[in-house]
Amino acid sequence: MASLGHYFKGTSSLEEKVGLAAASYELLQSIPLVVKYLQSVGWEGIVKHEVALQEVLLKYLRSKNDVVTILGEPEGEDAKLRVPVISFTVKGRTAQTVVENVEGKSDFGFRWGHFYSKRLVDDVLGLKGDGVVRVSIVHYNTVEEIEELVKRLDEEIGKERDGKDEVGEENVIASSGA
């Protein structure tokens, strides 16, 4: 196999074959500290923290079950049933509007769309609009951050809209179907 990088690089090692150029010095410098962090916290500590974080958001979303549909397991206590990537829809709202309105008034970053699962979103879930709202939570987030996100989501989800829906009922998943 020839080098994927520069034509003049050798081919005697895997790094020479697939290495595109020099290593990222910043990334290399971070590896010992990342390993130290992971060793100090441990995998079980990370999982426990992520379970607690996602439960803050899921508890809020479950409390809004008249307008919010959680996709996937609605309970967050069992890490074997759910990872802290929470997707949901809001009745009468496009996913894009929910995300952009919250992001426009805060420093939070979360997304909307089908996330390369277009057939799942369109054909299985029956969403023909702009997909789902997705919040990805990881071990370096804090409970306070998730509580603030909940506050911002509540401001958006709970606000009056003059009785007009942004989307038709065909874009809303039945609560019992997801």
Summarize this structure as a short list of keywords or feature phrases.
single chain; 178 residues; alpha+beta; Aspartate Aminotransferase, domain 1; four-stranded antiparallel beta sheet; 6 helices; 42% helix; extended
Short description:
With 178 residues, this protein is an alpha+beta fold.
Question: How does this structure look, described?
Answer:
There is one protein chain. With 178 residues, the chain is α+β, with helices and mostly antiparallel strands. The chain has a domain at 43-161: Aspartate Aminotransferase, domain 1, CATH 3.90.1150.10. It has six helices and four strands; from the N terminus they run H-H-H-E-E-H-E-H-E-H. The chain starts with 13 loop residues before the first helix and ends in a 21-residue tail after the last helix. The protein has helices at 14-18, 25-41, 43-63, 95-104, 118-124, 143-157, and strands at residues 68-71, 85-90, 111-113, 132-136. Mean pLDDT is 87; it is low at 169-178.
Instruction: Provide the helix percentage.
Output: 40-55%
**How many β strands by DSSP?**
4
Estimate the strand proportion. 5-15%
Count, helices? 6
Q: What is the chain-wise order of helices and strands?
A: HHHEEHEHEH
CATH homologous superfamily (4th level) name of the domain at 43-161: Aspartate Aminotransferase, domain 1
End-to-end C-alpha gap? 47 Å
Report strand order across the widest sheet: 1-2-4-3
